[in-house]
Design goal:
Layout (H helix, E strand, L loop, with lengths): L2 H6 L2 H18 L7 H7 L4 H7 L3 H21 L8 H18 L1 H10 L4 H31 L9 H4 L1 H12 L6 H18 L4
Helix pairs in contact: 2-5, 3-4, 5-7, 5-8, 6-8, 6-10, 6-11, 10-11
Protein name: TetR/AcrR family transcriptional regulator
InterPro entries: Homeodomain-like_sf, HTH-type_TetR-like_transc_reg, HTH_TetR, Tet_transcr_reg_TetR-rel_C_sf
Keywords: DNA-binding
């Protein structure tokens, strides 16, 4: 790409290309490969352009992971939730979350979390985790609202119960070195998540 072409790229497209280069390097070579010179070369732009948007490589990775998390939330909103029962909905959401854990922002988030080196970075990553938790609750509220409408439950469970599905998948994902089988997901739903939700609707 010539300098004139570089200069014509602006705004969202340029940022998209920089993020895409960051994702590729994170997934193929890891966090240690991230530096502004390499990112600029991979994104066909100049290092000064990258510096214009972000102060440090951590800032760039943080922004890239956050952007991927927002994309993931939008994808969840577009899922077909007409699955017939609360159990089916929970398994469906779990399957999508497992897919995201293997190929989406959660995998990148783990890299970012392991590279935190100072208090400010820990605070910012904690903020991102809080945003992910809020997104998980929105997804579960959607599922639970449909269960209320079908008469499967009468009230919403507390926040901790809403998060059990996601937390159990994350725990299993780390314990099993990045693998959560369908059988394991069904066990999580049938023996942990569903009984916990139904407990709060007992007559």
């Amino acid at each position: 790409m010539t300098e004139s072409n570089k200069s014509r790229r602006r705004g969202d497209q340029l940022q998209h290309d920089i993020y895409a280069a960051t994702y590729r390097l994170l997934e193929t070579e890891g966090y240690s490969a991230i530096n502004f010179s390499r990112i600029a070369r991979e994104a066909n732009t100049s290092r000064s352009v990258v510096y214009r948007y972000w102060d440090t490589p951590f800032d760039l990775v943080f922004a890239a992971v956050q952007q991927r998390m927002q994309q993931s939330e939008e994808e969840f909103k577009n899922l077909d939730f007409d699955r017939g029962s609360l159990r089916d909905h929970l398994i469906y959401v779990g399957q999508h979350f497992i897919l995201e854990s293997n190929h989406g922002p959660f995998r990148l988030f783990k890299m970012l979390f392991s590279e935190m080196i100072n208090q400010q970075e820990r605070e910012r990553t904690g903020q991102m985790l809080a945003e992910a938790t809020a997104s998980n609750i929105k997804i579960m509220d959607n599922v639970l609202q449909r269960a209320v409408q079908r008469g499967e439950i009468t009230i919403f469970p507390p926040k901790a119960t809403k998060l059990i599905l996601f937390e159990q998948i994350r725990y299993t994902y780390m314990l099993e070195n990045g693998w959560v089988s369908h059988q394991k997901l069904e066990e999580i739903v049938d023996h942990v998540v569903l009984p916990a939700i139904l407990y709060f609707s007992k007559p």
